[in-house]
Amino acid sequence: MNIPKSSPTGGCGGGCPTKEKGADLHRRDFLKSGAAMATVTLAPGVTLMSMGSGVAAAANPDTRWGLLIDAAKCPSDCSACVTACSDEHGWENNGEPTDPQWIRKVTLKNRDTGFENSLPVMCQHCANPPCVDVCPTGASFKREDGIVLVDRHTCIGCRYCMMACPFKARSFVHEPVTGQKVTTPRGNGTVEGCNMCVHKLDRGEGTTACVEACKITGNNAMIFGDLNDAESDISKALANYPSIELRADLKLNLGVRYQNI
Amino acid sequence: MERIIYRELKSTPQIWGFLALLGVFIAAAGAVVLYIEHHGHIVTGMDNQIVWGLPHVFAIFLIVAASGALNVASIGSVFGKVAYKPMARLSALLAVALLVGGLAVLVLDLGRPDRLIVAMTNFNFISIFTWNILLYTGFVAIVAVYMFTQMARGVPTYAVKTAGLAAFLWRLILTTGTGSIFGWLVARQAYDAAIMAPLFIVLSFAIGMASFLLVTMGITHLTGRAFGAELRTRLARLLAIFIAALMFFTTMQHLTNLYAAEHWGVESFILRDGGIYTTLFWGVQVLVGGVLPMGILFHPTLGKEAGLVVLSSLLVIAGGFAQIYVLVIGGQAYPLEIFPGYEVSSSFADGVINSYTPSMLELILGLGGVALALAITIIGMKFLRILPNSLSDANVGSKV
Known about the structure:
The complex is a heterodimer.
Chain A (H helix, E strand, L loop, with lengths): L26 H16 L22 E6 L9 H10 L13 E8 L5 E7 L7 H5 L5 E3 L5 E3 L9 H5 L5 E3 L18 E3 L4 H5 L6 H9 L4 E5 L6 H8 L15 E4 L2
Parallel strand pairs in A: 1-9
Antiparallel strand pairs in A: 1-8, 2-3, 4-5, 6-7
Chain B lengths: L5 E2 L5 H27 L14 H16 L1 H7 L10 H21 L7 H6 L6 H24 L5 H27 L12 H28 L2 E2 L1 H31 L4 H10 L2 H23 L7 H28 L8 E5 L13 H24 L3 E2 L1 E2 L1 H4 L4
Helix pairs in contact in B: 1-13, 2-4, 2-7, 2-8, 2-12, 2-13, 3-4, 3-7, 4-6, 4-13, 6-7, 7-8, 8-9, 8-12, 9-11, 9-12, 10-11, 11-12
């Protein structure tokens, strides 16, 4: 039987088996891949047994997914990206300090000049992620295409990754979760954060919920694409205009870049 | 000097009563764990800004005190001080007990304590946390072997010394690992400093010795066994030196930060503007837990008073606890500097001082760890020959 390298997993919201290091195929994934194959053989096009997202492609090591955010195009009163992420992944922030927040709008005011601007901050998908370094079980991991994820099956809820993240990009689930999205498994007592809509990418959609929402508003402040592809929109924009990484002093080589801060 | 005779504790109402009291605390902590497991951490005071809270302060305190509690055994076995040898078994037992108590709090506060087996079977060897798991379990094993060499008949001296040396080196590495949990956190202004490892080691010397003194004085008092005044004073003087060393390392930690403009924000928060954290730092850590006990214990007459030695040990424990609280909670209360040079605001508490009020549940869980450590120590002394019949000065040959 031909076992796919990537499979719809309950733990990561996509692609657990294609960890950059120590890739392995869990029994659960093996069983799921078998079930998915049986479904296809019996009735192509008819889903008798849903196992999560339909995976079209494995993480490609030649790809590095990234985001470019232009703060000059991001109005302070717009939070479409935040709402879209919340809707896509099923998390909700009602203002309680225990609520999760995968992406947030941050308002910056220059202390010297008083100039203000606004921008979204989420997991920066570091090439050298501190959260992956500190995770005792390897639940925090980086896919071959640069996306940093949490395997909910092996996260023990120690929160060391939250202590280590320089961007406060991760949330701890403080209470039992209801109304989960099929494509985004979440769990009480585990840590979560932006997964770059990995289920959409694995379906071959090539975009994220936040970027699509930003496009719909007409602001076009976010560009998503492959940082390794010189012909991608994001690479061209980065090549032609100045951009920065947050906390560049840490030399984490971020997958998310900013312009006009 | 008479021969040292080790005897199990007798079954007195005091011993069983004390164990029953500890059992109440342990049972309460167990109930708290089930409650948090059922409802989630939303019932605690911790949140997405203060992710490590009071249970972590208790856990780190106990784990650091554990390695320090082994001091007395190490001084006897490794450095050959004869007067300390009769206390080596108790020192080793207390070390293991404190570590187990601390570890219990740590793992029971996990978001998924039911997944402990995952932590024991999935290792990321780049993580200092992973190394700590191995260091903690290794410590228990090595100290158990060390105790065996001390207690078994016919074990040659060199074997005891070798096991003692191994345990001594292991405990230094263990506390280095605990300090490095914070020292290697590059993200936060309050941590990310190489001094964390040696700072934790001297902290372990101080709070470990204070814990040992309190337990030894308590159990000898409870069982009517002698604890020589000169031996006690000798340990108390050593504690005073450890406090001085701890204050020196603490001073260097903050002076080094104050020299770098990038750390002025967090330093002014801890040292001047931090409210409860500033109060805990100057009031409890420095004054109550440092200057005051050091003054008492170095004093030629006051330092010899049993009651004041007990008081000083309690003060050192309060100071050490405050130090860990300021480090762990205060370090998280100060906002992350993601955008240096900017005033920041967001719906996720960017740019603001994070507040934290520990819940009663967290306190009960932490006290449960302390109770567990004490219960293991008492039960160990009840069933094993740990405590000498007499620690009188004449018996152990102590001399100030």
